[in-house]
Each structure stands twice: as structure tokens, then as C-alpha cells.
């Protein structure tokens, strides 16, 4: 079997989503419209901007419960930065519509990175941005999910493989910080949350899924 699917550019994500537009698949049209709106705002802002200078763009990565949200809040306050996340708030209200469809779920998170990048690019003209998760998490979840679903079949890309190269058309961060805590602490924090998605459930209950995710989530 080929390696897990990682979208290398926004065009490939849009091609998948557009192929489902005629199927009346819930959420697809809404997601595409949100992307279009973000792209238009980005272009309009770029046209009006009198400077090409941008502020730092910092990413926090790590397993659920490692403290990303708390650290992001404190770091943003210290840096006088905007706190952001992926998937961005603009598409979170439709996330549940993609959870039971593996291909569309992957496309949702992939396009979410591009939507967040467009939103962040506008913000960076004014102040720094600290973001909870980005492309690293999308790639790591895709790998961990593939290993879980096809443990005897998936060919894992070796370290240094082109599979892990950053998409050329996606905004790059200035720095990526990977947070880690002991499993006991992480589970204690997660016990206070409501588990919602299938991948979050796997993360909570399956050691191999956590190990694979943690291994490939690190920058």
C-alpha cells in the first residue's frame, strides 16, 4: 500500500472537495465558500497593504492534553500576539460533518491549514501570531490513522523522505515548539474534556496511535 495521503498543495485539496460538490455532501460547499471568502479577504488586504513586513508566526505542537492552549495563551500575552488555532474557528462549526468520511475528513483538515494561513497572513501585517497546531498535526494524524487502520500494509516513509517536505504553497512558520508531558499528566487533563472525534478517541485509548502520532508530530 502507498504511504498515507498528504496533500502537497491547495489545488489537490480543492480537487477532492470539488469532486463531492454534486453529491450533496453536507459541509463541502460550506467549507469551499469559507476558503473562498478567506482568499478574497487576503487578496484585498494584500492589495491595500503598503508594507511587506510581517511579524513572527509561532506554532505549538504536541499531543492533546500537553498544554498547548495554555502555553499559547501565555506566550501570546507575553508577545502581544494574536492566538490562533487549526482547524480555525471559521470552520469548526462544520467539523462534525466530516468525521465519518475518511477522505473528506483529511481534506477538511488540509484545507483548514490553508484557510488558517490566509487568515494569519492578514494578521501578521499588524502583530505576531501564536497558533495551536498546523500542518505538522495534519501529517502526523494521517500517518497514525493509516498505521492503525492498515497495520500490516502501510509503508511508512523513512526519516528524511520527501513525504515530510513542507507544501510549497503553504505559509511557513518562523518557529515550531513541540510540547511534551508525562502520560499520567496528559490523561488527567484529558479526563476533564469531552472526547468528540474518532481520532481523539483513538488518541485517548490506543497506545500505538499515540506513539505514532507523537513520533511524527515533532518538527
State the helicity in percent bands: 40-55%
Low-confidence stretches: none
End-to-end span in angstroms? 25 Å
Radius of gyration: 17 Å
Strand order of the largest sheet: 2-3-1-4
Overall residue-averaged pLDDT value = 84
Count the DSSP helices.
9
Question: How do the helices and strands follow one another from N- to C-terminus?
Answer: HHEHEHHEHEHHH
Classify the secondary structure makeup into a structural class. Answer: alpha/beta
Approximately what portion of the residues adopt beta-strand conformation?
Answer: 5-15%
Task: Explain what you see.
The protein has 219 residues and is an alpha/beta fold. Helix content is 50%, strand content 8%. Strands 2-3-1-4 form a four-stranded parallel sheet, sandwiched between helices. The two termini are 25 Å apart. The mean pLDDT is 84.
List the helices and strands and how they pair.
Blueprint: H1 10-18, H2 28-48, E1 57-61, H3 68-79, E2 82-85, H4 89-92, H5 102-123, E3 129-132, H6 135-149, E4 175-178, H7 183-190, H8 198-205, H9 207-217
Parallel strand pairs: 1-3, 1-4, 2-3
Write a concise keyword list for the protein shown above:
single chain, 219 residues, alpha/beta, 4-stranded parallel sheet, globular
Summarize this entry quickly:
The protein has 219 residues and is α/β, with parallel strands linked by helices. Helices cover 50% and strands 8% of the residues.
Amino acid at each position: 500500500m502507498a504511504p498515507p495521503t498528504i496533500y502537497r498543495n491547495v489545488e489537490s485539496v480543492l480537487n477532492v472537495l470539488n469532486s463531492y460538490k454534486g453529491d450533496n455532501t453536507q459541509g463541502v460547499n460550506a467549507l469551499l465558500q469559507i476558503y473562498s471568502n478567506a482568499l478574497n479577504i487576503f487578496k484585498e488586504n494584500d492589495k491595500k497593504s503598503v508594507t511587506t513586513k510581517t511579524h513572527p508566526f509561532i506554532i505549538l505542537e504536541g499531543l492533546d492534553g500537553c498544554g498547548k492552549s495554555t502555553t499559547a495563551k501565555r506566550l501570546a500575552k507575553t508577545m502581544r500576539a494574536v492566538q490562533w488555532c487549526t482547524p480555525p474557528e471559521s470552520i469548526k462549526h462544520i467539523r462534525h460533518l466530516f468525521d465519518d468520511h475518511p477522505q473528506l475528513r483529511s481534506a477538511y483538515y488540509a484545507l483548514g491549514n490553508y484557510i488558517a494561513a490566509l487568515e494569519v497572513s492578514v494578521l501578521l501585517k499588524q502583530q505576531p501570531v501564536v497558533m495551536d497546531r498546523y500542518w505538522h498535526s495534519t501529517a502526523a494524524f494521517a500517518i497514525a490513522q493509516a498505521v492503525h487502520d492498515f497495520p500490516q500494509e502501510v509503508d511508512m516513509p523513512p526519516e528524511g523522505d520527501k513525504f515530510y517536505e513542507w507544501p510549497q504553497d503553504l505559509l511557513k512558520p518562523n518557529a515550531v515548539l513541540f510540547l511534551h508531558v508525562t502520560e499520567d499528566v496528559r490523561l488527567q487533563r484529558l479526563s476533564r474534556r469531552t472526547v468528540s472525534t474518532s481520532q481523539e478517541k483513538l488518541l485517548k485509548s490506543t497506545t500505538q496511535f499515540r506513539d505514532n502520532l507523537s513520533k511524527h508530530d515533532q518538527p
